[in-house]
Amino acid sequence: xxxxxxxxxxxxxxxxxxxxxxxxxxxxxxxxxxxxxxxxxxxxxxxxxxxxxxxxxxxxxxxxxxxxxxxxxxxxxxxxxxxxxxxxxxxxxxxxxxxxxxxxxxxxxxxxxxxxxxxxxxxxxxxxxxxxxxxxxxxxxxxxxxxxxxxxxxxxxxxxxxxxxxxxxxxxxxxxxxxxxxxxxxxxxxxxxxxxxxxxxxxxxxxxxxxxxxxxxxxxxxxxxxxxxxxxxxxxxxxxxxxxxxxxxxxxxxxxxxxxxxxxxxxxxxxxxxxxxxxxxxxxxxxxxxxxxxxxxxxxxxxxxxxxxxxxxxxxxxxxxxxxxxxxxxxxxxxxxxxxxxxxxxxxxxxxxxxxxxxxxxxxxxxxxxxxxxxxxxxxxxxxxxxxxxxxxxxxxxxxxxxxxxxxxxxxxxxxxxxxxxxxxxxxxxxxxxxxxxxxxxxxxxxxxxxxxxxxxxxxxxxxxxxxxxxxxxxxxxxxxxxxxxxxxxxxxxxxxxxxxxxxxxxxxxxxxxxxxxxxxxxxxxxxxxxxxxxxxxxxxxxxxxxxxxxxxxxxxxxxxxxxxxxxxxxxxxxxxxxxxxxxxxxxxxxxxxxxxxxxxxxxxxxxxxxxxxxxxxxxxxxxxxxxxxxxxxxxxxxxxxxxxxxxxxxxxxxxxxxxxxxxxxxxxxxxxxxxxxxxxxxxxxxxxxxxxxxxxxxxxxxxxxxxxxxxxxxxxxxxxxxxxxxxxxxxxxxxxxxxxxxxxxxxxxxxxxxxxxxxxxxxxxxxxxxxxxxxxxxxxxxxxxxxxxxxxxxxxxxx
Length: 800
Known about the structure:
Blueprint: H1 6-20, H2 28-47, H3 52-81, E1 90-98, E2 103-105, E3 108-120, E4 123-125, E5 130-136, E6 152-160, H4 173-179, E7 184-189, E8 194-196, H5 205-223, H6 226-237, H7 245-253, H8 264-280, H9 285-302, H10 307-324, H11 331-345, H12 353-377, H13 381-384, H14 389-414, E9 416-418, H15 421-445, H16 450-475, E10 481-483, H17 489-502, H18 508-534, E11 538-542, E12 551-554, E13 560-563, H19 574-585, E14 590-595, H20 601-604, H21 607-613, E15 615-621, H22 629-640, E16 644-647, E17 653-657, E18 660-666, E19 683-688, E20 691-695, H23 701-711, E21 719-721, H24 733-739, E22 743-746, H25 759-765, E23 771-774, H26 775-778, E24 781-785, E25 790-792
Parallel strand pairs: 5-7, 13-14, 14-15, 15-16, 20-21, 21-22, 22-23
Antiparallel strand pairs: 1-3, 1-6, 2-3, 3-4, 3-5, 6-7, 6-8, 9-10, 11-12, 11-24, 12-13, 17-18, 18-19, 19-20, 24-25
């Protein structure tokens, strides 16, 4: 496989090194020494003809080490340049140039600024940084028309903490920013904190490129409605900013979202047009190839130079170059050369979803399509008489081949697998290709005749109207897609193993190896289950839901209890966005108990989403009468889902596991006179063996003063979940002395308007040297108990 494909071997080794760098603790200098040593030793072994195998192994090892070294250097460089605040709400002054088109959404504007100088804490940093600006417009600020690509500006703002992954398996926005080489985030309140310095500089290369882009976009905008124009700009140029959310969602649900990104088909189309037009003038082959390559490079720059278009452009250049030397390019080598160039330029590219999907699709087509085509040829002759059947089957084969390679990635990143895409792509791909062709014709004929352009635009409007309608209907088909929340890297490996085995059943040796690997994987899964039975654990997960609470308890007998469901607002539903996805990623589709500690929206906001997407056996509340419309709606939804509803009060016990006990320490039975819902919070103490955790909801000092004398030493717990997000009204001295926790957990949102946790409360908590862990600083917090003690599971450190 690798004998005639040296580039494939090289890129696989290099990629392996980049991935392994996540676990490597060696310095770049030491890795460089190892690389030199491996290369020198390989040369010595080869010259002495001692062993060509050993020499080859050492050279391959040096490639792996090179990938590790370059990735570690890049990571260290980013950490040095990363802008993280040294103090809370750190003020900064930026002087720089707007480097992207500003994005406007309601009264907010975001854009990327390439800085010349940064002033912070009285010192000036003159090295260039790439910073994302988040501007919130005030009432008298207008619409922010002054923002324009290339404009120089001075900005006074607040340096925000650099984002990180908040919950296990969740989208890592910080990683996304790092992949796009954005090194900091600055928030700005109002135009009064921004001063523009003259007009935009239109003479730089990026400014000229942007100008060309805007000119081409305006042509499309002039002849089409905003909805159709946004779609056409997406399929022709890969510009998706203006595409409505419902269109994107429909294409995602039908597995046809790939047409909204410039890829190989677009590059092939541009190459075909250029090659045909230049060939018509009977120019020399070298001139035709050279101009075509320049045209492809220009198209690559205009479309934003995404991984897919760079990959396709490099492959096209390799293939065109092969025509000059009259040598056929090997496809796997061409793909590998494209990947190697991208990875050498930026090793982080390997972690980019677009890079992975792009290369997975094209490799899958190259590998599987010839095998599927052989199956098409075995179709009886009588079916070939049906007009167009051969073309339809081949389109289906291309769609199936691409999906075979990309299914694991779409399942892993987007938690869904499109079923209808196999059929939808048969229609979507050719129609979108035709729309792209006509859209290009509109642009080419625009300088010549508006009438011709209008004719093309009318035809294109019909195609786009039909295509969008078809995709919308296809997305509404039942089972258009299935959810796939637990597609782990192990499953991905097993999937590819199975698919490749199915296509190579006629190779006896490969069958034997596949059987051995399947048996090994099955045994590993089996022993993992046996291990979990012999070492029963209790797990407490405090999810990061912002300013609110959501705690999952998992008991040794596999039963689960969710305590609260976080906040809900117009922009954010903790149940829909955080809790349900987390539970499904853990393979949890049923909750045995769902405890709503009290009727405040930051604790029951996501409850409706939880009840909608999960089966709940019993909902527990402190009272059926104390609470507003939101709680009544939640209880009504629970009844519709046939969930039991139970009220609890002081002295009750929740039976959930024979090895664990859950005691209710608060509230009193009658809550009718309680005006502050915080003081009707359900307070639970969980005992598992000798380990304990106390969960206090939003109980304030008034409640603590009732609990403390009644339970005394029984309150003592290894872990305390602080009441009311660490506010000044909770965690009183007497109560903290009674609990005497080793660790205190605070569930609190970043920059919350209540300024939780209170500094005075934090001081009270640190009197006995308790460890304080906060979700606003650490993200989700996970503790695991073996019955003796609680141990924090540092889930982020397990990630590369």
